Every structure is written in structure tokens, then in C-alpha cells.
Structure prediction request, 764 residues.
Amino acid sequence: MRSNLGFFSDEKFRSIFFQTLVVGLFALGLFFVISTTSYNLEKRNIATGWSFLQNPAGFDISFSPFLEFKSTDTHLKVYFVGVLNTLLVSITGCIAATILGFILGIVRLSSNWLLSRLVYIYVEFSRNVPLLLQIILWYSILIQLPRVKQSLQVLDVFYISNRGLYSPRPIFESGFSYVLIAILLALISSFLINRWAKKRQDKTGQQFPVFSSSIGLIFIVPLILFFILGSPLSFEHPELKGFNFKGGLVIRPEFIAMFLALSIYTAAFISEIVRAGIMSVSKGQREASAAIGLKQTWIMRLIIIPQALRVIVPPLTSQYLNLTKNSSLGIAVGYADLVHGFGGISLNQTGQAIECMAIVMATYLSISLTISFFMNIYNRSIQFKEK
Amino acid sequence: MNEMNEVRKPPVATTGIIGWLRINLFFNWTNSLITLFVIYCLYQFIPWILDWTIFSADFKYNYLGEQITNQEMCSRNLDPENGGACWAVIYVRFYQFIYGFYPKVEVWRVNIAYAMLALALLPLLYAKLPYRKYFLYFTYIFPVIAYFLLNGGLGFTEVSTNKWGGLLVTLVLGCTGIALAFPIGIMLALGRRSKLPVISMMCTLFIEFIRGVPLITLLFFGMVMLPLFLPEGIDMDGLVRVLVAVTLFQSAYMAEVIRGGLQAIPPGQYEAAKSLGMSYWRMNLLIILPQAIRISIPPIVNTSIGLFKDTTLVIIVGILDLLGIGRGTLADTNWLGLSYEIYFFVSLVFFIFTFGMSRYSLYLEKKLKTGINMGAD
Prediction:
């Protein structure tokens, strides 16, 4: 039976019709936006194109630990400094948040009622207060520290003041590269030993002291080499000259505030994920491993955590993504990351909003995609392997 | 045959208060040591924090009995040995924290809007409300009433949005963002699961793009790029521009949550609906979505909590929400240096809202779980 709508009731026709309609409307909208935008840009005398990237920036960036930055450098360099700063705070934040989150998640499940309540209170406070507020709060605490002249001294070499944390800067002299090479070789060989020992244990049941031999390889061999080469490492200590420290390594309060806030905020979420993961491992697993006589710490390390990781890793990935995206809040305290440096100051100086925002967004998208890509690989490696 | 065994009581040490203490706090010696250490830390910390926030704090008057009008009159600034928090700043600036710079003569409109918001939320939060249907009608027309009440028009004098601020802006952004993102999110989720490849691809691209970039870049987009996209003469309000960005952001997250709910619906439901001859829209509106939304309510509340916290980001593009008013107050020379008091207060307000929402989501989850179990039995 045909309805009186004719071929409109044909599913194939309808599907093509609607899709063409949507594409058409989208193209029309795009055309409209592009034409009004180019008109507006022309009217406001805003330049277009990418040539502004080669122009000198004309401003200073106070925190650029990897690249030397001068105000005569280009906007392109502002971008690279921004990317490096974003990555620096994201990576250090992710590592700290993971460690703290795992510890807190396990403590939360501790049989000690008081301790687990305490972690619960921390988690609730940290999760329910906006991150931006926490960043600003940490920053306001850090800049209320004593001034440089009265800076707090820790272990005689670290100075804490409202300008940041000053520590000795290591200076690598010739010959230190051999030590680095030794450490690298030790890492590779202990990894290989680990694999060999595992294979041998699977085959013969004999165990090999992997942990102590790795420690020996990684720490003691390079250390001996270090002294044989005549300690090719010295430290440049910060010295108080006038109103500020000269020399040494400085970590700015903007970075410390971002690092603390991001890791403490995200650790609260991670601890809940870890708790849920551990609780998802059935009670029988723990009882069975206790029955075959495993130690408490081994039960956790060999039985519970590997199974819990299957549940933990997917939401952990989205926490890493969130942390990286949240690092863009550095703009609130003047941390020169991608958004503040390139998307903020460069944008205001050149007025080329569309180009700047496109670059910033594309960069965040690629960082996000990279993180999900690697976490997906890791996730696949820990999931159940069907044999 | 069946001998009655004498009912023996458990050993004293595992029941009652002493038993509880022994199991939970003093199970073995490490446990006891940890407990004692934690108690010692709390003993050091709690009296200090109570003293600072309550006992030696100034609420309206300082220790000399004068009413505080600026930071120099705070007890702790007059005499550092004597005095804790200076809550007077909250007292003096309370109006700004709640209403921003809304004209005082017109503030009753905001108060009515606040009361109406509570009334509009009631049927959404409490399913067993008597006459819920009529309350829901009110909820649907509430946004229109609120718009005219707050913004002006229909006989009310106009109050420009740059006079709005504080909790008012936080609530407007949070509620409007969540309310608008909900239908858009449903459409995006349906679109992503659509069989039409072009529509599904466009929705997927949109969702993944929004989820891949930070909210702050979307706010910048709304602030600096949106005016360039619009033809001359159309001047968008700052708050509206921010609202567009917040809504786009939230709808992408909402779409993913609802897609999760849609995926949990067994295919039999679709097949049954189709075999009854239902059209695509009928099937989704009457059969699929009611079930999908029901199971995704807890994650919807969770993303809403996230959005509510994220509304603070608008201070970066110059909108004065609760945190913005707090920072503005700190920049005032009268109240310099009271950052802890102000941030404490702002955190507390956010905490009350978000913690309430998360408790509500837990309650829903529990209710939902029992509901599903009853169905399965």
C-alpha cells in the first residue's frame, strides 16, 4: 500500500533527502558565517593569515624553564613555551594525582575508621569546591609567604618565599653523560632481567631476586662510576643579591599553585575511582589468596591491584584528560601556559582571535587524542586476555 | 531430635561501643598507633580552626565593640594576638555576594525569582509531590517568567545584565546551562546513534570536539569570536555569549551521558516499538527516551555538578559571579588581605550546592537500584 505522500514514504529517499537538507543548511550557515566574518574583519582592520606568528612578541614570560624567552622572540615561540608549560604542569600533575589518589583510595578502604573518615572528608571537600577557587586559594596562600629577605630556609639549600621556591641548580660537567648512559643501560638490563626471570619462573618455578638486583644495577653501578669519574656534578646555589635571588633554580608560585591545586583536586576523584576498583574485586579473591598463605602486601600487589586496574584504567584516562584540560585555568593566576601565553596575551596583541583560538583548540585536541591513544593501548594490555 | 541450643552471646569485646572501638580503631598495634596519631593531630587542629572561625572571630563588631566597616577595624589587624577571622566583610558585602550590583529598589524581583526557582525545582526533585503535574506546568513556564522578572520588560524596568552578579549569575548560568543542554544533549545523542551517516558523523564530530577542548577556550570563543561571526548591528549581551559557550559545552557532555543510557536499552524494546508500527520519533519519545533518561539520571546530576562548579570560569572573561564578586571585594582597599575569609565563604556556598546535589544523586541511585531489582524479581 502506498501512502498519499508518494515516494516520501520510501525510507531510502527520505534518508537521502534529510541528509542533503542537513548538509545544505550547514553549508549555508558556514557560508553566512564566513562572509560576515570576513566583512567584520575587514571593517575592524584585523589582519588575517599566519604571518603574525613570525612577528616579535614584545612581552616577557616569567616562567619558561625549558626555552630561554626574550621579549624580542616571535609569537611562534610564545606558542612553544605555552605548550611546554601546559605539558609540564599536566604531566607532573597527573603523576602526583595518581600517586596521591592511589594512596588515598587504599587508605579510604582501611579498617581504621578514623583514617577512612578523614579521607572521606578530604574527598568531599576537594570534589565539591570549584577547581578555579582552589587554584586561586593556593596562589593567595603562596604569595602571602614571607618576602625574599625573610625567606624560609629548608635544609640550608632551599629558600621558600613569595617569589617561589629557590633550589640549587645542578651543573653537569664533562663526564656526567657517562653516568646517564650507565643509568639508561641499567634500566634496560633490569627490564630484560625481569622478563628473563619471569620466563624462568614460569618454566621451572625458580625465583630470582629481581628487585634487589635491579636496585643494585640502577643505583649502585652509576654511583660507583660517578665517583670514579671524580664527581662531575656541582650545584649553583641561589644567592641573595639586593631584593632577589641570583642563580639557582626557581619554581614560581604560579606553577606551585597550579600543581598543588590540580593534583589535590584530581587525586580526590582518582581515589574514588581506585576505591571503586578495589571494591569491584570479589571478596573470594582476597580470601583465596589469604588461604594459600600470601602476605597482606602481596595480596594487594599480586591479586587485588591487577584485577582492580581493569576497572580503574578507563575512568582514570578521563581524569588525565580532565586534568590536562583544567591546566588551562593557569590564566587565573598568570601561569604562562598555552591559553594564557598564546591564547591570551598574543591574541590581545595581534587581535587575530580566529587564528589564535584555532591553534589553541587544535593543540588541546591533539593532546587529548594522544593521551587517549596511549591510555587505550595500556588499557588493552591489562584487560582479560582470552587464551 | 531438635535440641534447643542455648543461645550464647558473642564475646563482649566484639559488640557494643568497646567492641566497635576495638574492631575499627584498635585492631592491632599499628592500627592503634595510627588512631592515636590521628587523634593527636585532630586535637591540635580542631581547637585552632574552631577558635579562628568562631570563638575569636569578628562577625559584625570587633573586640572593642565597634561596627566593622573596613579591614583596619578587624580585631586581627588591630591586635594580631587577639582575633581570628573577620567575617564582617561577608556581612557588609552580603548584598553584592547574593545579587551583584542589582538596583536595590528592584531587588524584590530577584527574591521572587529565587523563591520561584525553588518552587520550580520541587516537582523535579520530589517525585511523590501531590499535584505534581500542575507544579510541572509551572516549571515549564518558569524560565519565561524569570527572564521578564530579572531582565525587565512587560512593565518591569530593565536591569542590564552587567548589573547582575554574585550568586544570581552563578545560578542563572548553572540553571540555564543545565536546562538548555538537556534537550540539545538528547538530540545530539540520538543524532550520534542515528543510522544516517552524515548526521551521525556531524554529531560525533561536534561532541568529540567540545569534549576535547577546555571550557575556557569555548568561553574565549564566545567572547572574542562570536561577535565576529554575527552580522553588524546584532550586539550580543556578554552574559548571553557566555551562556552560549556554557550550553554548548554542557550539551556535549550531556549527550554522552544520555548515549550511555540509550545503549543500555535492550534491542527488544526498539523491535517491539517498531513492530507496533511506531515512527522513529514516536518510538524514541514514548518508549526509548523515558527509559534511557531514567537510568541516566545519576550521571546527569553528576555532570550538572561539574557544570555548576565550572561556571566559576566566567570570571576569566570578566563576568562577576560569586567568585568574581569575592575577588572584586579583595581588590577593594577597604577589604585587602581578607582572602581566607572570602574564599572560605565562597567555597562554603559552592559546597552546600554541590554536596547537596551529589547526595541527591546518591539517593536517586539507591532508589533506582531498588526499583530495577523489584522489576527483575
Notes: Residues 373-377 of chain B have pLDDT under 50 and may be disordered.
